[in-house]
Design a protein that fits this description.
four-stranded antiparallel β-sheet, 127 residues, globular, alpha+beta
């Protein structure tokens, strides 16, 4: 995990760690600000709780930057959730990552879809 203890700062493309490493990127979709981060299950998924996590300094930066949606993209799946919902439902793990608090929310609570197949329009979905 990257240490974000000093302040994460934002540039036009997304939050940046103090050492200069960019963590994901920002975009605007349908008037909503989205933070997208490509991750690997092996490295970024909290196995104890099968959860996606975000360190507190990054959460603080996402809030300050007015992000509406958090999106994690893995090879087979995309997971996303409104930042407000994430904050309401996440468990806080005090001093979990290099002394930083971490917000953790089980993957089962995120909206997910496969990146492999295109999403069908409701017109073509048969119940």
């Amino acid at each position: 995990m990257h240490n974000t203890r000093t302040n994460a700062i934002s540039e036009m493309g997304g939050p940046v760690l103090p050492g200069g490493t960019r963590i994901g990127y920002y975009s605007v979709e349908d008037g909503r600000r989205v933070w997208t981060r490509r991750v690997s299950l092996d490295r970024h998924c909290l196995r104890i709780r099968d959860a996606w996590t975000i360190n507190r300094p990054l959460v603080d930066q996402l809030c300050a930057d007015g992000i509406d949606i958090v999106r994690y993209v893995t090879a087979p799946q995309t997971y996303e959730l409104d930042l407000v919902d994430f904050l309401d439902r996440a468990e806080i793990l005090p001093h979990y990552a290099c002394g930083e608090d971490v917000f953790a929310l089980p993957r089962a609570e995120w909206a997910s879809h496969s990146g492999e197949e295109p999403e069908l329009l409701p017109l073509f979905i048969v119940d």
